[in-house]
């Protein structure tokens, strides 16, 4: 048996592999090969059997391992060929295993590590992950994801959204999108001027639109592009040979009149006529259209994988079940209660019911089964999308498109894509979608002095939240056991104005630093009952600390002149005197008459942010283990905040209008991040745990928790 090592050469782009034989390691390598082969089989048994990509991975890996294990020392050329083939295959392993949803991650990780050890590759196996794109590679793609920090794994679900320009219309025509649909390969939009535009859905970006010559009000297409139909002047036309002559085929045949809404699958078409009844027509055979009995007056119909969904004029949603080859018309209805009022559009796709309400907000409810009844969550999650900092996402400016009548929000889907038309742009969601909802807690303290005024800290995985009450005391809620208790303020303080906890995974071992109305500093342990007031004689008598935040290595603070300071460590000397440990951090806001008011940090030492007196926010850059104080303050453009909360990899801000925004793609190399995501609803205060468990105070001062949900497309 042989161990193959990768020899890097600076002058040669092609890596050469040197073969080294070590007879003393023959038994060890043989055992390792056997272990890898066994792990491959175990991983396959725990994986999604329908994942062709993963099955190919297992077969290819076992083939290469078998050849490698049977190689002999005199088969130098064969050994080298196998070595090249196996090492070249390593970068494909993570991608293949990633595509299988149910792969046991520990087995996969161990398998990769064993392969790396077998090959003695100098580069760490994780280096290969950076070279693999799991989503479409697009220049104008906004990646909505949580990048890895130094020590932590991603904690929030991720999604990818690309933004595209719409066809350029004549401004004087008051043109807007009326209908949108897509197949696996094409996307179509119909305008109120009876124009049809289509574009191919490929990895090329941006989308290139073309206009179709025929007039069209609605175009429906099956997912495979096998069947295409259009409606013009309420006449329904079926296309011939759309697969042979894409995207819409040839020789339109008029098959029905007075059609208001239509959807199509490979072998049948469903449509609603002016009589507000539903009809089903098979593409093959001479059987006349069949009237599908329904007790409601219907307005729109959509199809998805043998499921037919309709809406009524009272906004009820009904799903037709039992549709199959033996009974294409189905055998019953299920009524879905959405409680969202009037809706603009809806869709059944990716095991989820998607609804766009009258305010153009997108909601979804993931379901487990429809044929046995709609088994899903009672609550709907609102879909959120990232916002790029720049405004050049679109291929061309949309100044020629009027927005007067752009009050619709349309949706369609294709394989792993979700397409959204939002007033002036087309957004395509790749891979997955993220939804949020706010879950009220059992605590709603509104009786005068006991109501919560500002959130301070949240422990991960414990549902323990600390807050300042209106009476100036610290308040703690333990929602797991529905208990709460109060930390009385120091005897010398009228009320506490701010507090910060030293990060600790155990809520019973924490230290808390606090400030009162006179800017006195107090420290106490969660277990203790006494506050210790710290002597600040290090500072001039005119200097007072007005805000502070603790991270894993020390305390950051802002004084009343807008300067920021840092102190190593959190413990307090028994002499009740604060040692001369505060270091003034150089740097101030660039603009005149600006000064810092607040400073925030995460548990990790390299995430430090600040807010100035104009509500502008800044990030401290250049923080490393060698230089934990950093190098400079950089302002984040086009955003303002009155409060921040920082987890291990995300910054959450509360704007002056009460909205919460999330900063995405923060890494050690890029501590400022790249994009924003705005969450729905308005709030008074927020805090976040190190694992992105977000808590807020609603307008009635009720404690509310953010619930996030990921749907794979």
Automatic annotation (TrEMBL):
Pfam short name (any one): Tectonin
Q: Which GO terms describe its cellular component?
A: cytoplasm
Positions of transmembrane segments: none
The name of this protein is: Uncharacterized protein
Listed under GO biological process in this entry are:
protein exit from endoplasmic reticulum
Instruction: List the top taxonomic levels of the source.
Output: Eukaryota, Metazoa, Spiralia, Gnathifera, Rotifera
